[in-house]
């Protein structure tokens, strides 16, 4: 299996995950103040949405790479 087929498969899997989940979230911790031994921090939850068109394009590009990678020329 060459690198083109592996990359194509990864694009397809990533596109399917984007369609199923639609995005992901993570927690970003910021330090607001440090007063001697006391440290105040704030944890902010950030959301990242994956557009539907990006998932579809990723699946299509992965399929194209798998088909193109199978040809020997």
Q: SS-based structural class?
A: alpha+beta
Helix content: 40-55%
Shape assignment: elongated
Secondary-structure element string: HEEH
Mean pLDDT: 88
Strand content: 25-35%
- Spatially, the strands of the biggest sheet line up as 1-2
Describe what this molecule looks like in 3D.
Helices cover 51% and strands 34% of the residues. The protein has helices at residues 3-21, 52-69; strands at residues 23-35, 38-49. 10% of the residues are buried. Helix 1 packs antiparallel against helix 2. The protein is elongated. By secondary structure, it is of the alpha+beta class.
Structure keywords:
73 residues; alpha+beta; two-stranded antiparallel ribbon; 2 helices; 2 strands
Could you write a compact summary of the structure shown?
With 73 residues, this protein is of the alpha+beta class.
Write the layout of secondary structure elements.
Layout: H1 3-21, E1 23-35, E2 38-49, H2 52-69
Antiparallel strand pairs: 1-2
Helix pairs in contact: 1-2
